[in-house]
Design goal:
- The protein has a single domain, classed as TIM Barrel.
- It is built from ten helices and ten strands.
- The chain has helices at about 30-40, 55-65, 85-100, 115-130, 145-155, 170-180, 200-210, 215-225, 235-240, 250-260, and strands spanning about 10, 15-20, 20-25, 45-50, 75-80, 105-110, 135-140, 160-165, 185-190, 225-230.
- The protein has an eight-stranded parallel beta sheet. A two-stranded antiparallel ribbon has the order 1-2.
- α2 (about 55-65) links the parallel β4 (about 45-50) and β5.
- It binds NADP nicotinamide-adenine-dinucleotide phosphate.
- The site of NADP nicotinamide-adenine-dinucleotide phosphate has 25 residues, from α9.
- NADP nicotinamide-adenine-dinucleotide phosphate binds near residues 24, 190, 193, 230 and 241.
Length: about 280
């Protein structure tokens, strides 16, 4: 479990990654630049973007202009499944948009439905790892059978699976599988994607601990051992969201939060989602 904002977790391949970062979905241009700048100033060491978010250029600009040593910032981006049949173009596009020397972690954003293309994309990422233009690779929204198939194909599990994760949708079976197989679990949508007001328990626990409902939720993730990437564009909330290292939820309260599990989630079904609803020209 991480103990402070800059703490890193060890990955199966002996590399490591920060346990806490800034999500950048649905923030564009000056808004996301300001968010990344605020986060880095406040001590965040990881930013999570994707080609799909169409903000890699702004995220990269904020990283470059932060004045912080590049090696102390961990930049995660993701390849969209419709590009798995042109992975080199997709990687070059991300590198050009971000305009940084290397990507710390590149994730396959969704498994997609074309297994051959998915593996071609994975192999291309490995070539870029060899060239040191990408430091590490992982996947996102993979189900257990997708991970098992990766193992069959490559003899190795990915280091990370970034999945939708919050108390309504804790994905216990997936988390247990990842733990058993040395895959770090990273949660997207960690603070209910803005729906936290619909969770009275968090309000109740917030009062008990003298923290906010969002802080209690993030603390639950941390105590579960999940990597967490709450998104905010608001500098004050970015700061507050990271202030989660001065209290500990009791086992009893962790269990109470566990009982919120109800299957409610926001994401697509990874078995059928092709990603074709997002189109851009890679140039
Ligand atoms: N791999 C994938 O398929 C995938 C999918 C979705 C997301 N992600 C990644 O995961 C990150 C996090 O997920 P998410 O953005 O979907 O959801 P989230 O982090 O659970 O929730 C973000 C929402 O919470 C609000 N918020 C943030 N701090 C708050 C606070 N202290 N009090 C009240 N509201 C607060 C934000 O609004 P403000 O900005 O106004 O504060 C925003 O509306 C994304 O940004 C993205 O990087 C990955």
């Amino acid at each position: 479990m991480i103990q402070c904002l800059g703490d890193r977790i060890k990955l199966s391949d002996e590399k490591n990654m920060p346990g806490f970062g800034l999500g950048c979905y649905k923030a564009m241009d000056a808004e996301v630049e300001r968010a990344v700048r605020s986060a880095l100033e406040w001590g965040y060491t990881m930013v999570d973007t994707a080609t799909r978010y169409e903000n890699e250029a702004s995220v990269g600009k904020a990283v470059r202009e932060s004045g912080i040593d590049r090696q102390n910032i961990f930049v995660v981006t993701k390849m969209w499944p419709t590009f798995y049949d042109k992975p080199q173009k997709a990687i070059e596009y991300s590198l050009k948009q971000l305009n940084i020397d290397y990507i710390d972690m590149l994730l396959l954003h969704w498994p997609g439905t074309d297994e051959t293309a998915r593996y071609r994309a994975w192999e291309m990422i490995q070539k870029y790892i060899d060239k040191e233009l990408i430091q590490n690779a992982g996947v996102s929204n993979f189900k257990i059978h997708h991970l098992e198939a990766m193992y069959q194909a490559f003899g190795k599990m990915p280091a990370v699976n970034q999945i939708e994760l919050h108390p309504w949708y804790p994905q216990q079976e997936m988390a247990a599988f990842c733990n058993e197989n040395g895959i770090a679990v990273e949660g997207w949508g960690p603070i209910f994607r803005g729906h936290i007001k619909e969770v009275p328990l968090m309000e109740e626990l917030a009062e008990k601990y003298g923290k906010s409902p969002v802080q209690v939720t993030l603390r639950w993730h941390i105590q579960k051992g999940f990597v967490v990437i709450p998104k905010s564009s608001n500098p004050q909330r970015i700061q507050q969201n990271a202030d989660v290292f001065d209290f500990v939820l009791t086992e009893e309260d962790m269990e109470k939060i566990d009982h919120l599990s109800c299957g409610k989630h926001f994401g697509n079904d990874a078995d059928v989602y092709t990603g074709e609803d997002f189109q851009i020209v890679l140039s």
